[in-house]
Every structure is written in structure tokens, then in C-alpha cells.
Amino acid sequence: MAVLNVSVVAADHEVWSGEASMVVARTVEGEIGILPGHEPLLAILAAGEVRVTLTGGESIKAQADDGFLSVENNTVTVVARQAELV
Q: How far apart are CA 66 and CA 36, in angstroms?
């Protein structure tokens, strides 16, 4: 089963990184869900929640303010001006 390698980082520190089965984030064009095999993507984040579903089914949530989301080769990187786990 394919997984996503996810990193959530703020301007000054890494908030969380690990493997996940899905990432959901709010962009300026609406909410987007990322699954393994997603096409490459670069999106501008809107202030809001980033939800990461781990491979075991648990989930984590981070509050992210302004930044971008990058997807390529099952790697998801969320870079925000400010971000913290909630």
C-alpha cells in the first residue's frame, strides 16, 4: 500500500513529519484532499486546519496560517508562516 511522506513546517521549526494515508488542507481555492498517487501540485494555503490521517487510522490536526502546499512523488510538504498542532 502506498503512503504519503508528510512534513508540516512553520517558518522557524518543524511541526510534524511522518507517514500518512491522507492529507486535507484549506487552500485559497477551497479544501483539498491528497491521497497517495496524487498528481504534482503547488497550492497557496489559506489560514485554517491541516488534517493528516496516519496510516493506522489516527489523525493529527495543525493550525496553519498562510503558506503553501506542495505535492510530488507521494511527498506532501506544508510550509506555513505559523503552524502548531491542535
A: 24
| DSSP-based three-state secondary structure for 86 | coil
How buried is residue 60: exposed, middle or buried, by Cβ count under 10 Å (0-12/13-18/19+)?
middle
Residue 68's alpha-carbon distances to 1, 41, 56, 57, in angstroms, are 27, 10, 26, 25
Per-residue pLDDT reduced to its tens digit, 37-57:
999 999 999 999 999 999 999
State the pTM of this model. Answer: 0.94
Q: What is d(CA 15, CA 49) in angstroms, rounded to the nearest whole number?
A: 13
Rounded distance between C-alpha atoms, residue 49 and residue 63, angstroms: 5
d(CA 54, CA 44): 23
